[in-house]
Amino acid sequence: MATRRSDNPLDTYLLRVFCLLVTERSVSRTAFKMNQSQPAISAALRRLRDIIGDPLLVREKGGMVPTERAVSLLAHAKSALAEIDCMVNSEENFDPLVSRSEFNIGSPDYLAPVFVSAVVERLRREAPEAVLNLHSLDSSFDFERSLAEGELDVVIGNWPEPPDRMHLSVLLEDEIVCLVAANHPLVRAGKITLDDYLNARHVVPMPYSLNQRGVIDVTLSALRIRRQETVSVQSFAVAPYLLQNTDLIFTTTRHFAAFYKDLLPLRMLPAPVEFPMMRFYQLWHERNRHSPSHRWLRRLLTECGAALSMQPVSPADSHNA
C-alpha cells in the first residue's frame, strides 16, 4: 500500500481501520468495533482515501461496498498488521497474569460446552486482562486463510483428514452416542438396534465444511447406511431442543450429549454403529509457532482437553435409568 504523500503515513491505526471498513462495509459498525466515534472513523477513511488514492468504499443500492483496489489490498494490510503484532508481542517473558493479549479461536459449535467453559474458566483465572474471541466456523469460513493472515490464532475441529499445511495436535477424543427425548419409545429398551436406527427419523446438522464430511457421515457412508434425515439444523446447539417430545434421534459426541442430557428431558443411548472416536485437533500457523503467548494458549487448550478426557461422563441410559 504505497503512500502518496509523505505527510500522511499509513500507521497501524489506519491499517486497522482499513481492514475493518473493508470487512464490515460500514463506518458505524467499524466505529462500534473499535470503540471510536463515527466522525473519527470517517476522518480516518478520508485519510486512507487520500493516501491510497482510491475511494475504497463506494455507496450502492444495498449499502457501502469496497472497491476492487480495496479488496486487493485487504490481504496485504492484514498480513502487515499480523507481522507488527508479532514484533510487538514477541517478548520472551510472557506473563499471562498481566498480559492484555487478544486471542482468537475458531471452532464448530458442536465442541462440547463443558470444554469451552473450562477454557474460559482457566483464562479468567490465569490471564484476567486477556481477551478471548470465539469464532463459529461454518461451510463458508476459510479457516486456513484466517490462520495465515492472523485473524485466528487457533482453529479447533475434528476433520477425518486434518489439513497437512498447518501445525496440529490432538486435544481430546470423544465417543459417538445417540441423544433422544426422555419419553422416546427406545428409552424403555435401553438400547438402539441397527434396525431401530435405520427406521427412525433423525435430526442432522448441516455440514460446516464444504471440503470434508464429518466422521459420522463418513462412517455411515462406508457401511452403506443411510439415515432418514427428517430435520436439518444449521446449529448443533439447536438440535437437542428439537428432540423433546419427539421420536427423533440425534447422533453426536458423548460430552456434548451429556451436557444437554442434564439440561433438558433427554436420554443418551449407545449408538448401534461402531463409530470411530471423534478426535478433536487444534491447528495453528507457522507464524504463531514460537510466540510465547500463543504457546501458552495452546498449552492451556491441551490441558483442558486432557482434563476433560479424564473426567467420568454419565453412562448411557438403561432401562432402569
TrEMBL record:
<dbReference type="InterPro" id="IPR036388">
    <property type="entry name" value="WH-like_DNA-bd_sf"/>
</dbReference>
<protein>
    <submittedName>
        <fullName>LysR family transcriptional regulator</fullName>
    </submittedName>
</protein>
<dbReference type="Pfam" id="PF03466">
    <property type="entry name" value="LysR_substrate"/>
</dbReference>
<dbReference type="InterPro" id="IPR050389">
    <property type="entry name" value="LysR-type_TF"/>
</dbReference>
<feature type="domain" description="HTH lysR-type">
    <location>
        <begin position="10"/>
        <end position="67"/>
    </location>
</feature>
<comment type="similarity">
    <text>Belongs to the LysR transcriptional regulatory family.</text>
</comment>
<dbReference type="GO" id="GO:0003677">
    <property type="term" value="F:DNA binding"/>
</dbReference>
<keyword id="KW-0238">DNA-binding</keyword>
<dbReference type="InterPro" id="IPR000847">
    <property type="entry name" value="LysR_HTH_N"/>
</dbReference>
<dbReference type="GO" id="GO:0003700">
    <property type="term" value="F:DNA-binding transcription factor activity"/>
</dbReference>
<keyword id="KW-0804">Transcription</keyword>
<dbReference type="InterPro" id="IPR005119">
    <property type="entry name" value="LysR_subst-bd"/>
</dbReference>
<keyword id="KW-0805">Transcription regulation</keyword>
<dbReference type="InterPro" id="IPR036390">
    <property type="entry name" value="WH_DNA-bd_sf"/>
</dbReference>
<dbReference type="Pfam" id="PF00126">
    <property type="entry name" value="HTH_1"/>
</dbReference>
